[in-house]
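Discussion board: Methods & Data

I've been asked by a reviewer to show the raw model output for two of the constructs in my manuscript, not just the figures. I'm not sure how much to include, so I'm pasting the format here to get opinions. Each protein appears as its amino acid sequence followed by a line of discrete structure tokens. Is this the kind of thing reviewers expect to see in a supplement, or should I convert it first? Here is construct A:
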Amino acid sequence: MPKFKIHYLNLRGRAESIRLLLNYVQQPFEDFRENFLEFTKAKDKLPLPHLPKLTVDGQFEICYTSVILAYLGEKFGLESDTAEEKALCMQLAQRINDHFEYIKPFLPVLAEQCFWPCIIEDFGAVFERQLEINNTGYLVGDKITWVDFYAASFSDLALTYGREDMLDRFPRVLHHFRGEERIF
């Protein structure tokens, strides 16, 4: 059985969806949470100084959340069936990557101007529409895929750092990560 190790900072952020997926498939993993100051001191010595990083068997290393999720999705049967569905998964994952970039310089005083509109006007609306179009309870296809974990993790971050009612206008998005097949 392969040995998995997630390297990330001591927070949920971009690694939480990876943890969720590995827990979902009941795959044990080491959750290495790096101190930010220690990481910044050592990152110049790394071949690819980016977190999150997944190490498999101490040899194979990959970075970037959506790349790691796509890899794990294929490895554990959580990927879409067709090339078109796979492309939709990648497109939705890229949208979440964009949202993470929007909130990167997040300051609490700017929440109402920057973060909330990003969630309400874009993330919520786009993902609500996708869930409505797909009409299966999943973002793509008729089974859970790796991109569902990424979206659920971002939804949880939105509710953690935003207003409690922030996603109330998007019942499908709320149900997606809190419904019968709970990701959270």
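Construct B, same format:
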Amino acid sequence: MNKFKRIIRDPEICGGQPVIKGTRVLVLDILDWLKEGKSFQ
């Protein structure tokens, strides 16, 4: 069961790293941006 429907892991996309579904945006990149104080806008 995947409780995060917008986060996927696929060996064919970014080496299996967690990404936002339909993109190649890594979840780790988003967490780093938030840590640096950046916003989504």
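Answer (T.O., handling editor elsewhere):
This is acceptable in a supplement if you add a one-line summary per construct. For B, something like: The chain has a mean pLDDT of 92.
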